């Protein structure tokens, strides 16, 4: 692995600041934005390896902003075991599973799920069809899907959203629950990256140079969280999931044209 260009660092600083801001405001789930952006300059697996320690650093500041009283443990008791199981499966396929297939699957899930909610939000679909929340037992399944896609592509946000957003949690409980879920997952997936030798000296140097934007981004995001009303937060969450899903599908389509 070689040294990184100035253009790479400029894009990485802006991208990681934005991801940290979203973590502070909504509890995370948007690290998937980072891999496509950094992959403009470096291989996707290297981009994922750089992002992994940085989102772990974000989690430290996010947990301070969203302490245990903001967590909904009913859902976490199912989501976290599911996620760890999904990561175990993903670790077996890391570097072997077709990246395009994973991106396409996650993208379609994100688009279909968020488009349904947005259509109901703007009166294009009966709200009852979009408001059906998965049962608690569904947390094992969607937690597993989230863990699997998170390990392979930092794309655990959309599958988690399929389960968690329809639960209608208060905005701070939603952010706190997502924060602790992704904290556990982000630290767990450091092990496969270490095992595969992706976290080498150039990677850690890049991480150290990008890291200062992390606390700043989380802090700005937390301030935004306090100022946004609950309906606005849910609307932004669903819009971001929709756009991220469209981007993933578009990227796969462009590669095969």
Largest sheet at a glance?
none
Radius of gyration: 17 Å
Name the helicity range. Answer: over 70%
Number of strands: 0
- Taking pLDDT < 50 over at least 5 consecutive residues as the criterion, the unreliable ranges are none
Instruction: Bin the strand percentage.
Output: under 5%
Q: How much is the average pLDDT?
A: 83
What sequence of helices (H) and strands (E) makes up the elements? HHHHHHHHHHHHH
Amino- and carboxy-terminal Cα gap = 29 Å
Tell me the domain tally: 1
Silhouette: globular
Structural class assignment: mainly alpha
Output the number of helix runs. 13
Family: Belongs to the 4-toluene sulfonate uptake permease (TSUP) (TC 2.A.102) family.
Main location: membrane
Transmembrane segments: 43-66, 78-95, 101-119, 140-157, 206-225, 232-250
Membrane topology: Multi-pass membrane protein
Summarize the structure.
This protein is mostly helical and 257 residues long. The protein contains 13 helices and no strands.
Report on this structure.
The chain has 257 residues and is an all-alpha fold. It has one domain (6-255). Helices cover 76% and strands 0% of the residues. The protein has helices at residues 6-26, 34-38, 44-65, 73-93, 99-121, 127-130, 138-153, 157-164, 171-188, 190-195, 201-210, 213-227, 230-255. Helix 3 packs across helix 9 (171-188). The longest helix has 26 residues, at 230-255. The mean pLDDT is 83. Belongs to the 4-toluene sulfonate uptake permease (TSUP) (TC 2.A.102) family. This is Probable membrane transporter protein. Keywords: Cell membrane, Membrane, Transmembrane, Transmembrane helix, Transport.
């Amino acid at each position: 692995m070689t040294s990184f260009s100035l253009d790479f660092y400029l894009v990485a600083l802006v991208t990681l600041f934005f991801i940290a801001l979203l973590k502070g405001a909504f509890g995370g789930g948007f690290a998937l934005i980072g891999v496509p952006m950094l992959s403009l300059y470096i291989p996707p697996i290297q981009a994922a390896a750089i992002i992994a320690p940085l989102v772990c650093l974000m989690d430290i500041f996010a947990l301070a902003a969203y302490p245990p009283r903001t967590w909904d443990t009913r859902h976490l008791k199912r989501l976290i075991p599911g996620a760890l199981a999904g990561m175990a499966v993903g670790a077996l396929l890391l570097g072997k599973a077709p990246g395009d297939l994973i991106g396409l699957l996650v993208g379609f899930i994100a688009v279909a799920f968020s488009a349904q909610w947005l259509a109901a939000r703007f009166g294009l679909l009966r709200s009852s069809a979009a408001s059906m929340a998965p049962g608690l037992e569904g947390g094992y399944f969607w937690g597993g899907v989230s863990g699997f896609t998170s390990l392979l592509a930092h794309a655990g946000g959309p599958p988690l959203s399929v389960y968690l957003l329809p639960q209608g949690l208060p905005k701070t409980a939603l952010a706190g629950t997502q924060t602790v879920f992704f904290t556990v997952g982000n630290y767990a997936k450091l092990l496969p990256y270490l095992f595969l030798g992706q976290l080498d000296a150039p990677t850690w140097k890049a991480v150290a140079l990008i890291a200062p934007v992390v606390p700043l981004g989380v802090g700005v995001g937390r301030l935004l969280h306090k100022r946004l009303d609950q309906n606005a937060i849910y609307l932004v969450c669903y819009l971001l999931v929709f756009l991220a899903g469209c981007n993933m599908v578009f990227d796969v389509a462009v590669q095969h044209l």
